[in-house]
């Protein structure tokens, strides 16, 4: 009797939404780590019961690392997904190019944008969408952060050094959103380094792959 072959280990499952910047960030981190996943594109207006069962907050990304029915291992914060992926595999040295003192600085920068910039960006997008009279005021609040990036990019090709890092790929989805709010203004705004940096990513093969369209996931019957 031939020996029994071990069953293949199921891939980690990533519940995602193509244009959500948080899900986009998670997908970029996983792509950079060259890890394989089972990507499940979802509609947040019809959230799959399987996703809610492992992450009741109902937002993406949700990464399920195992299929333990009672207590699956779940990561449902985008930055944590990136750190999980790059800790497992970091072929581009997005983390390992630095000494231990730099990662905390990157995390501070990322969380500043996650908290304060994202709040301002949401207000800016809403003001433009609803034709409110405070669009310029909202944009100026965001520009404080864009100027910080411009200053950094005047010193080096990427945000932390001459080589890209976790900080770059974590912020790209949100700067992309900012650039789309008032497109004509942005194209002539005094932030040429930010435009160059953002275009580097938006025109990359990596971004094309990360933004590939997927059919909505449905549970197999």
Total strands: the figure is: 4
Radius of gyration: 19 Å
CATH class group of the largest domain: Mainly Alpha
Shape: globular
CATH architecture of the largest domain: Up-down Bundle
> Average pLDDT across residues?
94
Helix-strand pattern: EHEHEEHHHHHHH
Structure write-up:
- This protein has 221 residues and is mainly alpha-helical.
- The protein folds into two domains: 79 residues, Glutaredoxin; 105 residues, Glutathione S-transferase Yfyf (Class Pi), Chain A, domain 2.
- Strands 2-1-3-4 form a four-stranded mixed beta sheet.
- Helix 1 packs parallel to helix 3, helix 1 runs antiparallel to helix 6 and helix 4 packs parallel to helix 6.
- The radius of gyration is 19 Å and the shape is globular.
- The model has no long low-confidence stretch (mean pLDDT 94).
């Amino acid at each position: 009797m031939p020996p029994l072959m071990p069953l293949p280990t199921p891939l980690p499952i990533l519940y995602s939404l193509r244009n959500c910047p948080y899900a986009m960030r998670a997908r970029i981190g996983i792509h950079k780590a060259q890890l394989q996943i089972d990507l499940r594109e979802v509609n947040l207006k019809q959230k799959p019961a399987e996703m809610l069962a492992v992450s009741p907050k109902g937002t993406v990304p949700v990464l399920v690392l195992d299929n333990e029915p009672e207590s699956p291992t779940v990561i449902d914060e985008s930055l944590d997904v990136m750190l999980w992926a790059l800790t497992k595999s970091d072929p581009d040295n997005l983390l390992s190019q630095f000494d231990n003192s730099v990662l905390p600085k990157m995390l501070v920068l990322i969380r500043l944008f996650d908290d304060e910039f994202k709040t301002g960006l949401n207000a800016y997008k809403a003001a433009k969408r609803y034709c409110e009279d405070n669009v310029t005021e909202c944009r100026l609040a965001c520009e404080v952060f864009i100027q910080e990036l411009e200053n950094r990019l005047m010193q080096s090709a990427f945000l932390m050094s001459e080589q890209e890092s976790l900080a770059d790929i974590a912020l790209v989805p949100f700067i992309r959103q900012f650039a789309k709010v008032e497109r004509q203004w942005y194209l002539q705004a005094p932030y040429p380094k930010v435009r160059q940096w953002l275009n580097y990513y938006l025109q990359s093969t990596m971004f094309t792959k990360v933004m590939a369209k997927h059919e909505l996931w449905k549970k197999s019957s």
